[in-house]
Specification:
With 196 residues, this protein is α/β, with parallel strands linked by helices. The protein is 47% helix and 14% strand.
């Protein structure tokens, strides 16, 4: 079964539209420019149940920025039961922390790269670690750092890069910044991340 992709990051919408165009024909976009409300989520559910007849697979793009947990809950049934042979869905959100855990668990989350990130080694991994920190998933963050043993220097630079534009900057930068003043090891990086 093809998983629904949930793009996140500053250019998530562009990535979602690009992906949508590659999957079929985009018939509707929800959640942009106005945030998705419960009524929009119901209209979306109806459209998925009865898409227009077309010789290309219809695609619906859904933006979750500003969508309340209640609105996101309305989407869940569709995310669980949708048959991608009839309709394909692509979701996007700027800040993954705003997506409810249940929505995230039913999608394949993919970070939307912008041009310059591609040149920062380990940017993807650093982004995942920051997201784990924001969600309080310290076990996952720790496991990821352990798996990158030997690359602490690049990982620290990548985390600094990710945090500079992140809503989590004020919360986490002070504890990461101290690593520039002491010996950097896998252990010191882990303890900075979990805030010891």
């Amino acid at each position: 079964i093809m998983s629904t992709v949930l793009f996140y990051g500053q250019s998530a919408r562009e990535h979602a539209l690009e992906k949508g165009r590659s999957l079929g024909r985009i018939i509707e976009e929800f959640g942009y420019p106005d945030h998705m409300k419960v009524d929009d989520a119901r209209a979306f559910t109806k459209l998925v149940g009865k898409p227009p007849v077309s010789n290309e697979v219809p695609v619906i793009v859904v933006g979750l920025d500003g969508a309340s947990p209640r609105t996101q809950d309305v989407l869940l049934k569709v995310l669980e039961e949708n048959d991608p042979d009839y309709v394909r869905l692509v979701l996007w959100i700027t800040d993954l922390g705003v997506a409810t855990p249940t929505v995230k668990s039913r999608c394949l989350t993919q970070w939307a790269h912008e041009g310059e990130e591609a040149t920062v080694p380990l940017a993807d991994e650093a982004q995942k670690i920051v997201q784990h920190m924001m969600s309080g998933e310290y076990g996952e963050a720790t496991a990821l750092i352990r798996s990158l043993k030997g690359d602490e220097k690049s990982l620290l630079s990548a985390m600094a890069f990710i945090l500079k534009d992140s809503p989590a900057r004020q919360r986490f930068w002070p504890q990461i910044r101290v690593l520039y003043k002491k010996p950097l090891t896998n252990i010191s990086l882990i303890s900075a991340v979990i805030g010891d």
